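User: I'm new to structure prediction. If I give you an amino acid sequence, what do you actually give back? Let's try with this one:
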Amino acid sequence: MARTLQPATCRSPDRGTRQLNTHAEKHLTALARQSRARHPQDIGHTDARLFLNRELGQLEFNRRVLAQARDPQVPLLERLRFLCIVSSNLDEFFEIRVAGLKAQIELKAEAPGPDGAPPRTVLAEVSRQARELVRQQYDTFNTEVLPALAAEGIRFLRRREWTDTQRAWIRNHFVNEVMPVLTPIGLDPAHPFPRLLNKSLNFAVELSGKDAFGRNTGSALVQAPRALPRFILLPPEVSGCPYGFVFLSSILHAHVNDLFAGMEIRGCYQFRVTRNSDLYVDEEEVKNLRLALQGELPQRNFGDAVRLEVADLCPPHMCDFLLQQFGLGPDDLYQVTGPVNLVRLMQVPDVVDRPDLKFPAFTPGLPARLEKDCDLFAAIRRGDILLHHPYQSFKPVTQFIEQAATDPQVVAIKHTVYRTGADSELMRHLITAARNGKAVTVVVELLARFDEEANINWAGKLEEVGAHVVYGVVGHKTHAKMAMVVRREHGKLVRYVHLGTGNYHSRTATLYTDFGLFTCHPEIAADVNDVFMQITGLGKASRHTHVLQSPFDLHTSLVEAIAQEAREAREGRPAGITAKMNALLEPEIVYELYEASRAGVKIHLIVRGVCALRPGIRGLSENIRVRSVIGRFLEHHRIFHFRSTDTVLLSSADWMDRNFFRRIEVCFPVLDRKLKRRVITEGLKAYLDDNTHAWEMDADGHYRRRQPGHARPRSAQAELLAALALPSGAGV
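Assistant: Good question. You get back a string of structure tokens that encode the predicted 3D arrangement of the chain. For your 732 residues, that looks like this:
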């Protein structure tokens, strides 16, 4: 019987003096030897040294993303895009994870995490590592990417390099397109330091002299409205190259005098503040979650400050002034040698028409059965259908709902929505279905971070046409990816189901790797229907035939499955575990994997992001290998394969506390033998064979990139593109 993990404070005798992520292998080996005398349940429950830190693991992940930007084998414009992704990832990291650490410290709730490190210690190390990561990022931007772009005729024109013709054009642009939307703010007793939006671009201006009212002022602010683009493309005849860009910051610097007529400008410095962006809504106290969120969302832009970014030329006294205004300390200051917000350069590759500097275009393929049959329900009746995104098209998922919306035989549609985007064709089909009289039930997760506004809007539109909209279950996010169509056929109702590992989002389906399964298997469909009934209604959880569900039996079932492999190995029978996911953090799962390793089970873990488990420790985890694959697409599959029973599971859940205990998730088997082989081959084996984009993790949480050496170079993503996608320009 699977045990239940009891909350406990992890103790580490030397954690206060020990540097994070530096653990001698011999010490851990000795620890493993000592643990053999204990009951398996005791392994790691009182020793935090068996766990790696979550926040530092996230920074390690961003170092791997940065490596893509530094790789000369990656197309040049894609290298720029990876630099932007690092900035975007760091923004969210500070908005959520660093903000959480700061909140714990402020509230004096400084209990250590599973790794034994208290928040204050983690925050100090995060500050040190993040600062070094940002330094490397801007060094790559300035010394590698910008010069390489310039050599290809894609230039970011600096103020000191502007010609007279360029200055005149930029001046005209400033007067007509920029200046009318700016509102300079002088700082004095009547104009205190304003509340600045989260991640907005601002300029601190030092002044001298008297203004129009005879006031002496020493400083002012200029806020750059978000409506203004952060870079401007000059005509080729003006720039002197095919693509000549000017940063908005450069334009403002050059013309700041126009904003303060008659004043002497002593300095102008761009800066940006990052704020706590977590939303705090007491679900049990509010009567209408949607209305409560609508009231809370505007406050996200004004949470507590957690990071200040300034240009490298900003003098110490101005840095100190800004830190004071935001209630931050020196460790929260990040001085950068370039634009303070690289995220806004994400659009540059889309503006530049240079296919030779981007990843090759491709057309997603289709399973052979869907190429021949336009009736999706008929195709599903002939057998389960597996889609592998982005190599295969997401269109069948959209068509599933589109066909259901107009099919007179369809009586009901049920759907979960976590992330779907502000412009979703699928959601429009659900609205059409409701207008056509179908019984449409949509579980909309309003607390999907940073997608709250889009989901609120869709919920309102669905309710307007009579759809039954449910906001999930209090205290649990609905993260399961499920769609069900109920169709009347030959006098009885038949359920058709789509289950996936990724969101119902047509854009991310072109960027994220995910599996989706169509089936009308009666038992799986009944299980899915039961999950919908639990979410929308009231009643106790029932036991399903095939589908595992959080927060009920998914965790205990996976713990038992891992333990079963251990028992098989101890008996000398074949055993093995291969699992792919985005994050591995849940302590009990980690303990069971350690135990399975000690029993002789060969364990291969493909973890894109954070992994708390320490692999390769003699006597403890020497049978565990952890790798991360970073490439063109964001790895997003959740796949679990247990060798002794040849069970292949797909899931919406990572192996994290939140997924097991605070979210509604589903995990479902692939029953068809051919499709099961496909999942193993495409989703697991291809990634284990990768020797060009795979990173191997060591016991201290550091990663080393695999090199093909004398072997044939293997890239999982490239091989899957070749096998499943169509050549660019081919029709579907």
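You can read the tokens as a compact description of the fold. Here is one thing that stands out. The chain has 21 helices and 29 strands.
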